[in-house]
Specification:
Blueprint lengths: L10 H6 L20 H7 L4 H4 L3 H15 L4 E2 L6 H6 L3 E4 L3 E4 L6 H5 L10 H14 L4 E6 L1 H10 L7 H9 L1 H25 L3 E5 L8 H20 L5 E4 L7 H6 L4 E3 L6 H8 L3 E6 L8 H15 L5 E5 L9 H13 L4
Parallel strand pairs: 1-4, 4-5, 5-6, 6-7, 7-8, 8-9
Antiparallel strand pairs: 2-3
Helix pairs in contact: 4-7, 7-10, 8-9, 8-10, 9-10, 10-11, 14-15
The protein binds coproporphyrinogen III (CP3).
């Protein structure tokens, strides 16, 4: 991993910029985490959010999948709710449940009580990104943040939600509170990404995992301007920006227009259709994460179809269509990585 090569010249960054590459780059959302025995060993007795605030653990956990798979990019080990925790919001990540917020946000006063984020809130992020970029050499590090809608859902619901009913009730019924909340989270996400890029991250991904709960019109009116602000503020730093959500077949064009260089596509949308939707932008995706449980030849056949479809895009970064499922066999991901990296078209 150590080396003098420049991550800005890596296949991942080039593909994200739509430049010619020797192979399609590959990394996996949630590549660091519970599918790796070496991760589970490190996390024994350490709470998730404690691990996310320890520069040494962040560095080691981020490097684990890079060592094991030789993927074309590392993703910073953290969580979308970490910046909220860092500014003092009372929340926890409950194993098997997800983020849980002690006092859900419902009023303007609740929003006003959340501090804005500065680099001083997250010294361990700066430290971990610096040590990671030194260790990674030419392998790029992807920084990330949760997008305003997805983070708002956790803050307003108080925990994970299927239908995001309270969140959308605020969006439809209390526009002043909604606007204040979205501005607050957008500012935090933007600052969090800027800290990561300033310390050496070569790309960023904005996770709007739950945006698929919205109609295109509601997304465009109530959400997109805030995500667009985050992407614009990071755009000045010159790193490629990936914008990802789940169930977003009807939103892919808008997610691109929000200011993404690369639009992340979940596995439900055929990649060719996604490419037609996003126009002259790169795409990332989109193998069904359950295909790693299929026989290897079935998995690689489907991966080949995605690699072929990706040729029509301005650029293509191979990934799963959502995060690695915890029960995934790491050896199967190693085979998938090897398959994608050695795949050549005529
Ligand atoms: O991708 C990576 O390898 C980097 C690490 C990463 C984590 N969370 C670590 C994590 C990333 C990029 C995230 C983002 C995140 N967190 C999202 C957006 C991505 C997506 O999956 O849609 C969301 C929605 C969250 C909120 C969250 N945090 C959920 C839903 C959960 C799972 C709860 C569970 O236990 O089933 C978490 C916890 C979490 N984040 C874990 C990890 C490795 C598992 C906790 C553990 O290992 O103890």
């Amino acid at each position: 991993m150590r080396g003098v090569s420049d991550p800005r010249q890596s296949v991942f960054v080039k593909a994200a910029r739509g430049e010619a590459v020797s192979h399609t780059p590959v990394w996996f959302m949630r590549q660091a985490g519970r599918s790796l025995p070496e991760y589970l060993r490190l996390r024994e007795g350490v709470a998730m959010l404690d691990a996310c605030q320890d520069a040494e653990l962040i560095t080691e956990i981020t490097l684990q999948p890079v060592r094991r798979y030789g993927v074309d990019a590392a993703i910073f080990f953290s969580d979308i709710v970490l910046p909220l925790k860092a500014v003092g919001v009372d929340l926890d990540i409950k194993p098997g449940v997800g983020p849980v917020v002690a006092e859900p946000v419902r009023t303007l006063a609740d929003v006003a009580a959340i501090p804005d984020l500065t680099a001083d809130h997250v010294p361990f992020i700066t430290e971990a990104v610096r040590s990671l970029t030194a260790e990674l050499g030419g392998t790029p590090l992807i920084g990330f943040a949760g997008a305003p809608f997805t983070v708002a859902s956790y803050l307003v619901e108080g925990g994970p939600s299927k239908d995001h009913a309270r969140t959308k009730a605020m969006m439809f019924g209390a526009p002043d509170v909604w606007d204040a909340l979205m501005r607050k989270i957008a500012g935090i996400a933007s600052a969090f990404l800027q800290v990561q890029v300033a310390a050496g991250a070569s790309a960023v991904q904005l996770f709007d995992s739950w945006a698929g709960a919205l109609t295109p019109a509601d997304y465009a009116t109530h959400v997109m301007p805030h995500s667009a602000r985050v992407l614009a503020e990071v755009g000045h730093l010159g790193v490629p920006r990936i914008h990802f959500g789940v169930g977003t077949a009807n939103l892919l064009d808008l997610m691109g227009e929000a200011g993404a260089d690369v639009v992340g596509v979940d596995w439900r949308t055929p990649l060719s259709r996604a490419i037609a939707s996003v126009g002259d932008r790169a795409v990332q995706g989109n193998l069904d994460p359950t295909l790693v449980f299929a026989p290897t030849e079935v998995m690689t056949q489907r991966a080949a179809e995605i690699l072929e479809a990706g040729r029509e895009a301005r650029g293509h970064v191979f990934n799963l269509g959502h995060g690695v499922i915890p029960a995934t066999d790491p050896d199967q991901l190693a085979r998938l990585t090897e398959f994608v990296q050695s795949y050549r078209w005529d």
